[in-house]
Every structure is written in structure tokens, then in C-alpha cells.
Design goal:
766 residues; alpha+beta; Jelly Rolls; Glycosyltransferase; ten-stranded mixed sheet; eight-stranded mixed sheet; 15 helices; 31 strands; 26% helix; 29% strand; globular
Length: 766
Amino acid sequence: MKMRTHICLWACYVLLFFFSGTLTAQPKWITADEETPNQPNTWIAFRKDITLNKVPSAVITQIAADTKYWLWINGEMVVFEGGLKRGPNPNDSYYDELDLSSYLKKGKNQIALLLWYFGKEGFSHKDSGKAGLIFNMQAGKNRIVSDSSWISRIHPAYETALEPAPNWRLPESNIRFVAEKDLAGWQTAVYDKAPGFTPSKEIGVWGDAPWNALIKRPIPFWKDFGIKEARFEKQVTEKEVVYTAYLPYNMQMTPIIDVTDSKGGTMLFIETDHLNGGRQINLRAEYVTDKGNREYESLGWLNGQKIIIRHDKTSDVQINKISYRETGYDGTPEGTFSCDNDFYMKFWKKGLRTLYVNMRDTYFDCPDRERAQWWGDVVVLMGESFYTYSTSTHALMKKAIHELVNWQRSDSTLFSPVPAGNYKDELPAQMLASVGQYGFWNYYMNTGDRQTIADVYPHVKKYLGVWKQDATGLTEYRAGGWSWGDWGRNIDIRLLLASWHYLALKSAAQMAELLGYLEDAAGYRTIMETVKQAYNKCWNGYAYRHPQYQKETDDRVQAMAVISGIADKDKYGRIFNVLKEQWHASPYMEKYVMEALFQMGHGTYALERVEKRFAPMVNDDNYTTLFEDWRVGGAGGGSTNHAWSGGTLTVISQYLCGVEPLEPAYKVFKIEPDPASFKTSSISIPTVAGTVRSEFDNNSDEFVLKVTVPSKTQAIVCLPLTVAETVLINGKKPAKVYTNVVPEYRSEHKLCYQLPAGEYTILAKK
């Protein structure tokens, strides 16, 4: 006991030294000592010179900034856009941690940092009201902290662009850069002669308001793909000159221009083809030239497939080169897919691109209009990510989950998008989807992250507590702040809510059982049964319809009844007939319709229906991403880069290729392909347990399946119903151990085999 006390005291001492040190070494929040550092769209340059006798093997540094920062050491760019938008909850902020040892040298070192303070609320950011920087570096015995010894000034070249401003959902401002006001070479200028720099103003210490507690950045720094030159064309109109640069695909990027102006003072308007994406005014930039030649990179990232630069026809300006720096979430598309169907290959490529352009600080609904973490979208994007992107994306999911519950309101309701400073409405259907099977529980099954489930369960319990049943036992209608079930018409909202409620209750019961709250679990399952019985009373012999619903039968509701397990199999035939006739689901909900069709054994029709519905957007070569609605400019604004339209990637992976975890973290997983109309297919999936591979060849005489089962895992392989009993595994009849499948993992009427880690070729005669 005494030893344990000593260890705890020593740990506390170390932490106190690291984050507080002596009073004189305590890091301070600092800002420019000027009149207007807290105006929206303010940019502040900070400098600090230090001397090191030697450079330790590790120089751990913490940086928090409101809102974003760029860091140079000895003139070398070290961090391109550091910091995360506020906040992990409505009050606190994030900080970055990095090792600067490889950038420092013995002797004099120059630290330069450019801060961008948003100063505005948005759908993805909570404004603090103050621009600020805090810096804490431990270099061996040397501790360098931010304080009044740092010099700073508001960067005079950065201004706010002319109207129109970006739409109110975005916290970022349009940036104008006036070249003649630039502080050339300020990152390496002689410290005591830096023009206009004065000692910084101390405005707080670590943990002080308005930034409050600082939470370590939970996701990687951005991946920088480097600077690449773009092909561009010049067009002269009656009033202006327009340069259009062509990028290989829709991306997150910062535009870079090489420009010559013999006189200076020319306004260049820098836009992308997504300036009005989703029927809103989005982000752009402006640049005012000085005399001579200059290269300029606009640091606020834009998205698009084209960079468009305009200037007045009368000006003497020449654009010599247009380049771009693509950045994005540090994940790689390690999942691969191929098949013999050209349409679905094209769909996969566009879906993958759309997914990536919607990942950064958070998962977005779209990267232009909102950059907002709507949780109906997040649920779908998480599912896609598990099958397509590296496991580094799991950190983004975990961040999203913690943000959602940590923004829970005092009345126990949840809402999205979060983080947010100017939005607070609950969307009940999306919130139920979030905490349910496709949200939190799906995260657990793919990652095995029990701690996160333990963290969120109390919040889930509180939220489900606000949901009640009516006199029939059906989920009571709750409008919340926005009674949104889907884009489009013919939404049977009572039954749609009940479906999501049922799945949320199932997830909560599983969470409770995992954590040992057995009474809670029993209570959830009792409510599930009540809801299920009431839901089935809404079956009219042909379809599910709530008695108060008077419009066309809702295809979404029929699909949800299937995938939730509410509908018994004896109803599948009638439901299938409905899904052949009713096509109301938006691209968001069509994923669930497709899944239901595969579950009912109608994979071929699922592929046909999806191809007919998605063909216009998938085959439109003007776009490399998928749309929000069925057409450009449709429901919701109709943005052209909504990753919720890529849910098909998940269904193909999970049902056509048949790969799905049966136990958390892929300890046991299923490979149960349903070829449908495909003759060949191959998929490779990055999981926390290793790479899972499955490849089938479905010809007229035999079905050949090749699988890779990672080390320390087991696969339950179930063959399609079309195959006969003649099966060879790696050229031999299956050993008894292969056929000893746990009953709960068997598939009805199918041949199933339990395979340990290894490589297998399974041949089945038809």
C-alpha cells in the first residue's frame, strides 16, 4: 500500500512538472497585443527563438489553438493546418501533441506559428469568443512555453473577402490576401527586428476559460499528398479573364497560383466548381496582387474538381501556373473490390472517392455546403469505412461517438450535427440510428472497443429513457426539433421511428449484457417485444402501414421491418412485391432497402433496382462523387458529394461478398457470399485482426471460393444454396473439425464450415 502511494505521488509530480512546471515556466494562452485580435477571420503571426545545447531523442510538444495553425521550425513547414474545430463537448477544446525532435538542431532555432481564428459559429464548430495559442515543449531539461516573451502581430495581409459571404452553416470565412501587405520572410526574420511584432498578451493558463479543459487530439494529423501542378485553360470574355484548372477528382485542397502583374493591385477571385454546391454559397478566396511575380497558396481548404480564377479584363495579369495541395484524413483505401460488372466497379470507385472527401475533423455530410457531422450520415459512412479504409479511420469514428454523447442535453436528448455552435435540434430518427445496431454496436463489433461502449452506455440509457410507447405498444411519436425520416415523400414516419427504436433497444440490450447490467438488458428486450407486436398489428396482409398513414406504401418501412427482425419470413413474399412497386427511398435509405432484399434472398433484384436508381449519378462523367439526392440540386439542396449514397459499398461487402464479424474485433467472422447475378467477385477487407480476403468464381458447373483467414481468427464459411454436397477444401473432403459449426452461426439450409487461420480454396459442385 505504501509503495502504491509513493508511485501515485511520483506520477502526480511528473504530470505537474510536465504541464505546470515552475510558475515562470507555466504555458500561457497568448494572443496579439492589439485592439482587434478577436474579430472573425483574424490571422496572427507568432515567433519565438530558442537555443538548445543538444536535441533530445524526443521533444514532445503540446499545441492548442483557436482555431487552426500552421507551424514552421527554422523556416521548414512542420504542421500544415494543425488544430481541430471546437469541441469535444460544448465547453472544452482539443490540443495537438507531436514530437519536434527531427526538426530542431543544436544551437539557435526559430519557431514560427500562424494562427487562424474563425470567430464564428457553425454546424461544425463552437466559437470561444477569443483567439488564442498555447504551446508547451519539453526538450530534455529545456522547457519552452508560450508567454509574453513570444512576439506576435495580426498579419496585415489577411482580410475578409467581399460579399457574398459563405452560408451560415460554415464557421470559416472567405480569405482575402493582399500581397503588398505581406510580411515576407517573417518566419525566419531576425527576432528583435521583425516588423511590427510586439510581446504577446497573456490571457490565461492551461484549463482556463473560454477554452476550458484541453483534450488530446484523438485523430491523426492530415495526410499531405504534396503539391501538384494542374492543367488549365484560359478564356477571355467581354468583362473578365477566366482560368479553369482541372483536378483529377473532387478533393479537399488548397489552391496555389503563380502570378505576374506589372502594376499590382489586381483582384483575383479564386473559386471551385463547388462554390454553389448544394444550392448554397460556399467557400472561395481572393488575392490582391502586388507588382512583379509571386507564388501564393490560399491556406483555407476548398473542395472541388476544378479551380476557377477570375480577374478583370483590363488588368495586366498573367497566371503562369496553377497548382494544388491535396490534404485529407490520414487513412488509406486498403480495402479492394473487383467484379465482372462494370456498373458496380464504377459505383465502388465513386463511392470510395465520396467517402474520402467527407472525412477530416469529422465525418461530413458534404465538404462544401456544411462540413457537418450529421449522424444519419455518420452511421452509413462508418459502415463503408470498415470495409474500404484502413483501421486508422476507427479513431474518427470513436471521436464522433464521444462527441455525440458528450453534447447530450440536460433533458437527456441527443442531437446532431455536433460539434456545433448554431444548431441544436434533435432529429429523432437519426439519433435512434446512431445509438443502434448500425451505429454504436456496429462500431463495437468491428473494433472490439469495450471501453467506448462502457463510456457511452449511460448516455444511451438516458436517451432511450425519453422514448415511450402509446396505448397499442408502438413507439410513441416524437417530433424532436426536426421530424426527419428521409428526403422525399410517402414516409410512414410512425413505423419508421418504431423500426429505428427497435434496433436501438436491441443495441442497448447488447451493451447492457456486455457490461453486466442484466436487469437493464431484460427491460430493453421486454420493450422490444412490445414494439414488435404492435408493429405487426400494422400488417394489412400486403404491407406494413400505420393506421394514420394515408399515402402510398412506404418502401423504407418494409425494408426496416426486414432488417430489424420485426417481420417474420412468411411476410417476405408480400414485402418483396411492395419493393418491386414502390421506389420512394432517397439514396440515403436505399442502402437499407438493398440490404433487406439480400436478406430475403433477392440479391439479383437488389442489384437491378440499385443500378436503375443510381445509374444517372454513377454514369455521369461530369462528377467523380455521388449525389445527395437522385438528381443534382434535388432534395436537401442536392449536393454532388454525399457519401450516404455509397451505402451500396457496405451491402456488396456484407451480403454479396458475405463478410461480416460474428464476434467483436473479427475474432469469429462470416464469409457467406450471395453471388446473385455476379459471375466473379474479389474483396479484400482491412480489419483489426488482419486482412480478410474472399474471392468467388460462380460458373455453371461449380462454385469456387478462395478465402484468407487472418491469424488468431476463425471464419464461418457458408456456401450458396445452389451448391451440392460435393465439396472439397484445399483439394480434400472437409475434415470433421471444419463442419463442427456452432449452431448460432449456421445459416439455414446452407453448407457451413468453420475454418481456422489460413488460406483456403473451396470447390463446390452444383
